[in-house]
Structure formats: C-alpha cells, structure tokens
Amino acid sequence: MSVHEYTPAAEDLRFTFGGAAAPVARLRSGDVVSTVTEDCFGGAVRSVEDLPSRVCAPGRLNPVTGPFFVEDAEPGDTLAVHVLSMVPARPVAVSSTFPHFGALTSTAHTATLQPPLEERVWLYEIDAPAGLVRYRARRSPFMVDLPLAPMHGTIGVAPAGGEARSSITCDAHGGNMDTPEVRPGATVYLGVNVPGAMLGLGDGHARQGAGEVAGVAVEAAMHTVFAVEVIKGVATPWPRIESDTTVMSVGCARPLEDAFRISQHDLVTWTADLTGLDTLDAYQLVAQAGTALVGNVCDPNYTMLAALPKHLLPDATTVYGGVHQRLRAVPVPAPVVG
Amino acid sequence: MSVHEYTPAAEDLRFTFGGAAAPVARLRSGDVVSTVTEDCFGGAVRSVEDLPSRVCAPGRLNPVTGPFFVEDAEPGDTLAVHVLSMVPARPVAVSSTFPHFGALTSTAHTATLQPPLEERVWLYEIDAPAGLVRYRARRSPFMVDLPLAPMHGTIGVAPAGGEARSSITCDAHGGNMDTPEVRPGATVYLGVNVPGAMLGLGDGHARQGAGEVAGVAVEAAMHTVFAVEVIKGVATPWPRIESDTTVMSVGCARPLEDAFRISQHDLVTWTADLTGLDTLDAYQLVAQAGTALVGNVCDPNYTMLAALPKHLLPDATTVYGGVHQRLRAVPVPAPVVG
Amino acid sequence: MSVHEYTPAAEDLRFTFGGAAAPVARLRSGDVVSTVTEDCFGGAVRSVEDLPSRVCAPGRLNPVTGPFFVEDAEPGDTLAVHVLSMVPARPVAVSSTFPHFGALTSTAHTATLQPPLEERVWLYEIDAPAGLVRYRARRSPFMVDLPLAPMHGTIGVAPAGGEARSSITCDAHGGNMDTPEVRPGATVYLGVNVPGAMLGLGDGHARQGAGEVAGVAVEAAMHTVFAVEVIKGVATPWPRIESDTTVMSVGCARPLEDAFRISQHDLVTWTADLTGLDTLDAYQLVAQAGTALVGNVCDPNYTMLAALPKHLLPDATTVYGGVHQRLRAVPVPAPVVG
Amino acid sequence: MSVHEYTPAAEDLRFTFGGAAAPVARLRSGDVVSTVTEDCFGGAVRSVEDLPSRVCAPGRLNPVTGPFFVEDAEPGDTLAVHVLSMVPARPVAVSSTFPHFGALTSTAHTATLQPPLEERVWLYEIDAPAGLVRYRARRSPFMVDLPLAPMHGTIGVAPAGGEARSSITCDAHGGNMDTPEVRPGATVYLGVNVPGAMLGLGDGHARQGAGEVAGVAVEAAMHTVFAVEVIKGVATPWPRIESDTTVMSVGCARPLEDAFRISQHDLVTWTADLTGLDTLDAYQLVAQAGTALVGNVCDPNYTMLAALPKHLLPDATTVYGGVHQRLRAVPVPAPVVG
Q1: Could you count the other beta carbons within 10 Å of the beta carbon of residue C46?
Q2: d(Cα C22, Cα C272) in Å, to the nearest integer?
Q3: How confident is the model at residue D336 (pLDDT cuts 50, 70, 90)?
Q4: DSSP calls for A152-202
C-alpha cells in the first residue's frame, strides 16, 4: 500500500468525467490518496458580496480533482473508493442562491418566463472541533448552529461509450450525485468503463440538506483521504454505497420517479443476489424493510438512493467480497497540507 | 372532552373523501375517538391463496372509517388530528404484489404493453409484545423479523370545490398519503374545506418502507385512538405533520419532483412564519438543515415530505398555538374491542 | 329523435363532473341538444381591465353546462357525443395570463418561490363570416388575424367510484381535456360510469394553440348543438375521438410522458381490435403511421392524443358500429338563442 | 461553393458528438456535402431473423457520419445546415422492437421488474418512385402502404463544456432528436460550441410516427446532400428548424413537459425578437397560434418542438438573415454513389 499526496493547482482542476485529460497520479489497488478539492465555486466566493454568477467564470463551476488512473481497473470491473477522512480546508464555507438553479425556482430545463430569484450569498463559520457550522440569516439577526457533516457531492469515473460528461451532472458513472452518504466511513462502488477507471472527486460540502433544494449546499474546500480497491470481474451498473450499517443503490435520472425506480430496482436485484431470494421475494423485502434517500433535486439529473440495513442480510461481510471491512481498517494518514 | 367509540360494519366503510355519505359521529374540538379500521383489502386476503385481484370486489379497495363531523370546523380552519394509539386488530398482516400497481411495474398510467408481474401474497405474523413482524419469503426458507411500526396510510378530509376523491389517491385534502409519519404520537394538520371537515382514516400498516415500492405495505386492520382539535381561522394549504421533534409539510403530485417542490415550498414559507426569516433566508435554512422523506411512489399521486427539526425554531411551542403539546398529553383510553 | 333546447342561467352552471347535481334534461339515444355554454371565466372578463383573478369568484372557474342524463346509459356502456355545430355567442373572445397558471410559469404544483407573471388580458374580435379572430398585442401596435376554430375544452361524464372531479381537471371520465379535436364534426366516446352518464360540457374556445401554453385559450361562450348515442355493452377506458379521417385516443396524466403512454397504449390496443393485428404488429403500425397531438400542458392533468388515419383500417365504418357516420348525417337544427 | 463527396467506411462511423475524433472533411460556409449515412443498426439487420440485440455490437448503435469541420465556425456562432436531398440507399428499410427500449415498455431508466417485450423485426420495401414504404404485419397477412418521408433522426455538433455525448441522446447540441422535421427542404440551426462546430449526422428514417413510440423508426441508410452556412455572432441556445412555412424551436429533456417548456420558451423569446412584441404579448401569440410537435418519447432525452407559421411574422425573410432562402436555392448535386 502506497500513500499518494496530490494537491492540484487551479489549472489542474477538471470539469468533466471522461475526455482527454491525462491522469494526475497512477494508483494501485489498495493505495491511499491524500488530496485537496476545491469548492463548487473554485474558491471564488469569499464574501457575501461575491455573487457566484459574477465571480465565477462560465464553465468553471464544480471543479474536480483528478483523474486518478487505477492500475488493473478494466471495463467490467468495479472500483471501490473508501472515504477515510474529510477535513474542511478553510474556516468558512459558503452557500448561495444561483440564477435559475435550484429546486424552488424555474430553471433552464423547467423553463418559465419568470425572472430568477435574487442571488444571495451566505457564509458559514466552521467550528471543526465542536463539529458545527453556523447559519446566519442575511436579513435578520437569526442564527443557529448545525452539525458539521462533511461529504463529497461529486465522485465518479469516466463514462462508458466514449462519453465525457460535465462535472455538474451525474449518471451511471457517478459524478455530481450530491448525496450526504458519500462521507467518511463510506465505500462507494463505481463500475469501471475505461482502463484505469479515471477517478475524480470534488464538491465538498460541510453539510447538505436532502435534495440540495436551494441548488447549493454548504460548500467547502476539503482535505480528503481515500483508499481504492479494484474488484475484478464484478460489474456495477449504477453507483452503490456501503456504510457500516447499510447498503445503498443510487439512481440518477429525471423525472425523480425514474431516479427512484433505478435505485430501487438495483437494490432489489442486489438484495436477491445477497440473500438468494427470488426477485419478487426480494422486492417484497426491500419494499417493507428498505428506505429511500433523496440526493439532489436540482442538478441536470436528480439522485435518489435505495437503502437496506445490512443486519437483514444473511452475511453482510460478503458484500463485494468484504472490501468495505478491509478498507475501513486502513489507517488514516495525516491530511496533506494544501 | 368526550370519548367516542365507533366500530364500523363492512357496509359502513367508505371509499371516497367527500361525497354524500352521512357522518358516522359528531365530534367536538378536543374529543377523543376510539375506532377500528379495516386493511386495504377490506380483510378479504386471509391466506397466500387469496390473490387480491380475485378476492377483492372492484372499487372496494382501501376502505376508510368515517366520515367524522367535527363541530365548528369551517372552511378556512385547520383540523388537528393527533394519533394517540394504534394496535393491530388481527395477529397477521398481509402484503402482496397487485397487477400493474407499484413502483417497479408498469401501471395504468405508466402504461406499457408488458404483462403484469406475478401476483403473490405474503403473510406477516405480528408479535405485538416484542414489537416485531415476521417476513417470510415465499420461494425459499429465508425469514427475518422487522420492527412493528403501526401507521395510517390514509387520513383526510372532504376536498374543496365540491369534489369527492377516491380513497386510493391523495391531494391537498390528505387521503392516501402513505407516509410512516402518521403514527402514534404525531399530529396531522388538515385544511378544512367543508363544514364539519368530514374526517376519515384507514389503511393501517404494521410497517412500510419508503415509497411503498411494491404498491402494498404490511397491511393490518387497526384499533386506533385519536383526538381532534379545531384551529379557528388558520388555513393549511397542504397537509402538515408534527411530531415531538419535527415539523413536516406534505406534497402530493406527479411527477415526484412536483410532490417534492410542493412539500419544500410549504416548509420554506411555514419556516419563514415560524422564525421571522425572510423567504430566501428561510429557503437557505431549510436547504441546509431540512430533510426530505419519501411517502409513496405508487399511488395516483406520489407523496413527499419536507421536514425540519423543531429545535431550530425560536419557540416550537407556538406551532399551531401549541396544539401538539396539548393533544400529546391526552390520556389514551382503552381501545375499542372490534 | 328529439331536439332539446337548454339555456342555463348562471346559477345552473356546474363546476364538477359527478356529485349530487340533478340532471338538467333527460335525453334518449339519438337525441339532439341545442344549448349554450359560458366561457371559462363565466363571462366576467369583458375588458382588458377585468383581471380574472379579481373579477372571478374562487371556485367559479370553468363552468359546465349540464349534467344531461342519457336514458339507458349504464356503467360499462359508451356514450358517443357528436358535435354538430358551435357558434360563438358573443362577438368578442378573451384570453389572459393567470397568476401561477400556465406552462411557462411556476404553478401551485410546480411550486417555486418566484412571484407570478404579470396578469394581462387580451380581447379578440370574432369575425364569424370571415372565420377569423383578431390578435392585438397589448404593448405594441402589432395585430394579426388567426383562423376561427371553435372547440370545447371541457366535455365529460361522471367519474367512476363515486368520485366528483373539478371541471378544471381531466381524467378517464374526460373533463377539461383542452384539445382542439373536440370540434364540430367530431364524435367523442366516453365510458359510462354511472346510470345516465351525466354528460356535461363547456369551456368553448374560439381557437387554441397546442398545449394551451399560456393556460388560457381564446375563450368564448358558445351556442353548441350535439347529438348523443349510447353504445351498449362496449366499454371505453379512456376518452376517444373520431373525425371523418382519424381515430384518436386521449390520455390525461402527469408527467406528460404518462399522458402520451396512456394515449398510445389505448390506440395500439384499439388498432389491434380494429385490424386483427396482434399487439406487437399493431404497436409497429401505430409507431410508424400514427401521430401524437398535444392537448393541454397547463391543467392539473395534461392531455395527449394518439391518432391514426382511418384509411389504414380495413373497414373504418365498423368503428363503434358506425355511430360516427350515423351522427354525422344528423341535420343541424338552428342554434338556441341564449 | 464547393461540393464535397464523402462516403464513410464502417470504421469511419462515430458514436459520439464531441470527443477526439478527427474531422472527415473541412467545409467552408456555403459548401455542399454529398454523403452517405448508415442506419441505426449499422446495416446489421438484413432479415427478420436478425434480432438487433444479437447482431449489433454493444456501443455500436446509431452511427453518425462526420464530424465535419466548418471553417470560421466559432463558439457563439450558429451553424445553419440545410438538407437538400435524401434518398434511401437500400431498397429495404427495417424496424424492430428492442429489449427495454421504447415508449410502451419499461426501460433502463423507467426501470421495472418485468421482462422485455418480444424482440421482433419488420422489413419495409421502399418504392421510391411511388413515394411509399410497405408495412407488412409479422403475425397476419395485413399490409398497407405508407408515405415515404425521409428524415434524419440524428444531427448535431460537438457539445459545450468539453463534453462528448453518445449519438443515442440529444440535448442543446442537437444529436438524436428524432423529429421528422429534419427533412429535405428544412434548415437546422445549431449553436456552435467548439471551433469548427464538428457537425455529424445519421439515423436516416424512411418515415417515423410522432414519438418514435416503438423506439425504432423505419430505419434506412441514406444518400444525403446538405449545405452549410455559418451565421457569425448569433448564438442559438437550443436547436431550431426552419421550413418554407414554419419556424420551430426544439427542446430535449425529461420529463416530457420540460422538453415542451424548453421548446415553447425558446419560441416565445424568438418570436419576441422577430416581431418586436414584448415577452407576454409574444407568449400570448405563440399560445394561440403556435403548435407543438412530438419528436421522440423513447430516447434518453425526449424531444418536443414548438412551431409558429411564418406568415404571422412581419418579415419572415429576416430569420437568421435569410439563410433559409439562400440555401433553399442551392442546386442539388447528384447524390454520391456509396
């Protein structure tokens, strides 16, 4: 096992999954990476006066660190990425409304003739030792502390079929899924589509509500440490996530019920595999014992997760050959100093 | 405060909210009702041989107990219904697939040329003292215990505009919302559209996964006790639910993102009312601190809930004038013996 | 054959399909009705100063003339309604934007935090002899003549299952389908759900673009003459329309693709019946030879139509036993003077 | 003006818009191209025994001829592509069902647990002189002739933001829009995102019903002749199409109402530009005088078109500076012999 340290310069950041970008590092199965990711605004929003639509260059939203080439990862394999730690890289995180982006506004796709909502920025002080971020209203003295809960909104590999996809969207290759489940302690499973998988990640959130309903979470640059492992010969059609307690299937689509259907369908067939149940028996078990989590309802594709408690499985240590347990035990190196 | 006991005969059950049915009881604000509800199959499915599409009469699915007339409830008021207790009325609950109904099948609306999935019934033994229901696979020996978590899938009032709506669907009047949040300890707020509100409820579930993805939960007849209170002069545009810890807004619509939008929009404006925040500040708070819960993704209208922890509010005891705290303190009478 | 003349007073207008309203006339199969319908604003918008949200009473939008009781129409039968003539009842028609209603605005269901578009009224002079209506811009001198093309946005029967549905929406019972295909010369087929069918119609449009994208068409009170016939023992699951050249199936639902699916599914199975093709062969024929028409994309349920040219059928005179040809030949009585 | 002849070999076909593929030819504004396109199966389906899922290599569906580099086309410009002629390249066209693809089946996104529909192939004889294609049922002797109406399902440029998109889907860059409006005599306007535009086209259909409801049209290799012109300094946000009589805006999205909204929104703002109307007056005109056309309801993004008759415009010859009229007058060279 090697530990790779990688701190991208601004010009090293990427805005697609797939495409011609050269890998920033070559990893072996079992390696650990200690790296830094920028926030979704590329760090350009520093005060409440910095309206994102003015200070961010078009096409430079949601930068991704990577791609990382993983040796021996071939199409048809699965890449497991275990998030070992995430530490906010700056003492302040940022959120905003953004013109015609978000769940409670018309958008470029849900197009109406109405003008956009006011663009407004909120700054959140991060109190990492206390595990809190502070919400401060902009138009009144109201303030309240919320739990610090770091996560990556964006993680993915190069798509299939020679596609390159914007880091703003998500699909079967992962990408901008915007689910709080990609947090320290979680293992993300991504189907490999090209040699080396070409892993990228970014869009750290100090925390996020379900649906990312305002279109922007509590955005934060991150020091992140993760480990990778290649699972040979096992295909993963849609991203999956495993925590200590839960297995989860991710669906990315519009309308939202299709994201729901994809995630539940994958969980049913996966549960059938893990339990030996026939499809309808697995459907019944998932229907009564499962749950559904809302990722984003603001990006070009929405994200839903279907989740099942692992204690319902006959032997949860067999999930992807026990990779989650192995990677969970990897010691966390000190984060890179960016 | 009076306690009303009411046990409907089969012919007393109703299949719409609204319409000409005479009230089964007249309640006063503050009264308690101890009653019985049938399961969604009207109790007709007793064994795994009883396929619902064969044993249930068309148009007799999802019966509702009621309507209850609430004195002094007038259009523009809100009816608070607090669920004091729910006890399964039979030792066995039932689930099934149902032809062309559910989230992972084509349906009458998501119409395809494919034949339906196999219709199959599952029986669940209820161990009320242990708080468990037992899932047993039909095609293999697999079995597992799941928590007993009683809830009402269906609760509502007469709709506005002279409408009468099938008990299968949900909308601004409530109805078949199919959310686990309508459980003992919760207060449901429903906008009153007609004099007396005309409250009905049914569709007890011993438990349910998010989305009711198979179209049918763990269906159980219930002994249910609830209390009502009329909140005069306060309108409630969409159903809301309050628990000891959380305020929730319900949206019912298709596609699923519209159910999400309705629920989040209502929670944002409600939060603005409860905190004094302006709309965008409330939007930001809900976006980062709120969550989203999936009710059903199988009924004619889907249900989503937007939820906010009450500890974030300056004074949560002011929600609807503190009715939740008052009704929470009502002593629970012994359930009626059906 | 009898000719019934019926002119409703304002208090005779109805706002639901289904419900307790007594029939306004009793018709026999083959009878003709000469009647009057109000516009969707109940005639309250007479000048560009009459903003609909101010001059229309809540709950009094989209009034319907009826219900007409049709003798011998029983559940499981089909009611054929042939539109013999439509003549605008006033020399001016009216359109408007309406707050949070329409396809290019957020709405009560596609809920956003944006304020509504400006409410604005347009008046259209009707030149009936020339067959034209005149569009005049409100903010510039631009004007242009458009073809007069009268149609009924709303036609339906009482729904199944004891429901009563607002005249604003549409579903399997018909209602506010808002398709230009309900025009003179067309026969509408509606499945009968209650004894007497309880037919109603209204919402005349002097013309309408596809999708009724602004939420309001060129609204006009109408003198309308129609004939009815009961087709015994033939069920019609969703509304169908027949013109001299085309058979059409209607789907009403959200999202729009479900309205599309319902309509195409019905046309495929209907085509299989009319041609003897097996289902997949009919699917193929409809896929290559059929078309799709957009009804409304603004009402609570959207409407799509699937259409097939009748000349592709082996014998188009067998459609519903040739009722279209029979009713097409009915002489048109002079319209009632309202 | 130069005439370029280009006949791709099988290995020259492309499966994405955007990406690293080198241009197959360099065109100047005003040039004409005479080329050949393969059908969506790459010509692999030759008999009813050739089930597409067996005879087509994965990832080799919907090949595109190109990319063509257009000199002087820069981001922010518009590329006009006028289709001069289309002649089927083989005497037989082909259609099929395809597993879990189409509007009346569950799919990978509208995921259900049902097995796919039977995969079945239909062959259509093309009678070019008579302008007919012959539908023959597979399970009965039924046959009928339908009009030959050649069109390209797929035409587009490289997307923005460094993306490369599968030729199966469509979006703001064009792609697999699957609308019959891309036919001889039509001019397609595409916003340029990369230097040279990188135009590609393919997926010829001998004809297609609205919605491409079976997922596959009457697929045919084509001899196609087209002309290009660069409109400098004029951006086009979504594809537009102009015929001799009509201007059309294209929207590609899910759900279908968003495709509708995009197309209508673009047509409203375009109409405002072309008429000088303010936005709401243009909204009103489009709402009453416009129409909506269904492209596809089966691909990863659905396509809708909004259309307005050109005779309603004050001066239709000003549309994009009159490029349609200029290109309409280009003499058609003899098609290339492939």
Answers
A1: 14
A2: 39
A3: low
A4: EEEEE-PPSTT-BEETT-EETTEES---TTSSTT-EEEEE--STT--EEEE
What is chain D's alpha carbon radius of gyration, rounded to the nearest angstrom? 19
CA B287-B291-B297 angle, to 5 degrees, is 120
Q: Which residue among B19, B251, B258 places its CB closest to the CB of C162?
A: B19
Alpha-carbon distance of D161 to D17, in angstroms, equals 12
**Measured between CB atoms, which of D104, D113, D255 is closest to B117?**
D113
Q: Would the CB atoms of B278 and A139 count as touching at under 8 Å?
A: yes
What residues of chain D lie within 8 A of the CB of C256, using their CB?
A: 255-257, 260
Contact C109 B253 (CB under 8 A): yes
The token pair at A27 is 């990893």
Using alpha carbons, select from A104, A101, A114 the residue that is nearest to residue A41: A101
CA-CA distance, B43 to C7, in Å (whole number)? 49
Q: What are the residues whose beta carbons fall under 8 Å from the beta carbon of D55, sequence distance 6 or more? A: D41, D44, D45
- B79 shares contact with chain A (CB less than 8 Å): no
Residues 6+ apart with CB under 8 A from C329: none
Q: Per-residue pLDDT for C336 more than 90? A: no
Q: Give the DSSP letter string of D144-196.
A: EEEE---EEEEEE-PPSTT-BEETT-EETTEES---TTSSTT-EEEEE--STT
**DSSP string of B315-338, one letter each residue:** -GGGGGGGHHHHHHTSPPPPPP--
State how far the Cα of A117 lies from the Cα of A99, in Å rounded to an integer.
6
Half-sphere exposure for B203 (CA within 13 Å, toward CB): 33
The DSSP bridge partners found for residue B121 are B96
Instruction: List chain B residues with pLDDT less than 50.
Output: 338
How far is A294 from B259, CA to CA, in rounded Å? 13
The span from the CA of D194 to the CA of D69, in Å, is 10
CA nearest neighbour of B94 among B134, B61, B141, B128: B134
Average pLDDT over residues A28-54: 98
What does CATH list as the number for A3-328?
Answer: 2.60.120.580
A3 - beta bridge partners? A32
> In whole angstroms, what separates CA B326 from the centre of its chain?
21
E strand or H helix at C143: strand C143-147
User: What is the pLDDT, as a whole number, of residue B86?
Assistant: 98
**How would CATH label the architecture of C3-236?**
Sandwich (2.60)
Q: What is the DSSP letter of B23?
A: P
d(Cα A279, Cα B138) in Å, to the nearest integer? 11
Query: D202 forms bridges with which residues in the sheet?
Result: D64, D154
Phi and psi at residue A13, in whole multiples of 5°?
-70, 150
Other residues' Cβ atoms within 10 Å of the Cβ of residue C57: 8
CATH code at D3-14+21-318: 2.60.120.580
